[in-house]
Write a structure and sequence with these properties.
Blueprint (H helix, E strand, L loop, with lengths): L6 E2 L2 E2 L2 H13 L10 E8 L10 E3 L1 H12 L3 E12 L5 E12 L5 E13 L2 E9 L1 H8 L14 E4 L2
Parallel strand pairs: 3-8
Antiparallel strand pairs: 1-2, 3-4, 5-6, 6-7, 7-8
Length: 161
């Protein structure tokens, strides 16, 4: 993804557009492209993270490592039932959605609820708070041979998300 991809018709992408790109990238398994959606000094906080998922990820470089590690995991995620709420702050949106997931190594399928609060400035994510159901990811991964790495770590974190 290039900086030109971060604009729509010459203007910076809106928070809704950035979230749509993040969600589409995760759903398509394009983990190596996701860090480009974040500012250099972006902060991702995952209050419900379970080890080994970090409760906080700082900076685009660390997010890139985080996403690439997630890509090596067995999870396949598809966002569905997405509802985006605008807020009084034009930089901030709240996205509610589910992931339909599949553990590639076992074939196990699952659904996980998520909420992400994103702050987008100049077409880049500067901050997110990702409320993924990490225990549900852990249950889905149980017995898969995965250590939990990749369990909803989208900046998700969705992520996010």
């Amino acid at each position: 993804m290039t900086r030109e991809d971060m604009t729509s018709e010459g203007a910076a992408l809106t928070p809704r557009e950035v979230f749509a790109r993040l969600s589409a990238g995760i759903s398509a398994g394009r983990w190596d492209e996701l860090a480009a959606l974040y500012a250099e000094d972006a902060v991702v906080v995952q209050p419900f993270a379970l080890p080994p998922a970090p409760p906080r990820v700082d900076g685009r470089a660390e997010l890139d490592r985080h996403f690439r590690a997630t890509a090596r995991g067995p999870l396949e995620l598809r966002a569905r039932d997405v509802v985006v709420h605008e807020t009084a702050d034009p930089e901030v949106i709240v996205a509610e959605f589910d992931y339909d997931g599949r553990v590639a190594t076992t074939g196990r399928t699952f659904r996980v609820a998520n909420i992400q609060v994103l702050r987008v400035r100049d077409g880049l994510i500067v901050e997110t708070r990702d409320y993924h159901d990490h225990p549900a990811f852990a249950r889905a991964l149980a017995g898969s041979g995965a250590s939990g790495r990749g369990a909803g770590e989208t900046g998700d974190t969705g992520g996010g998300g």
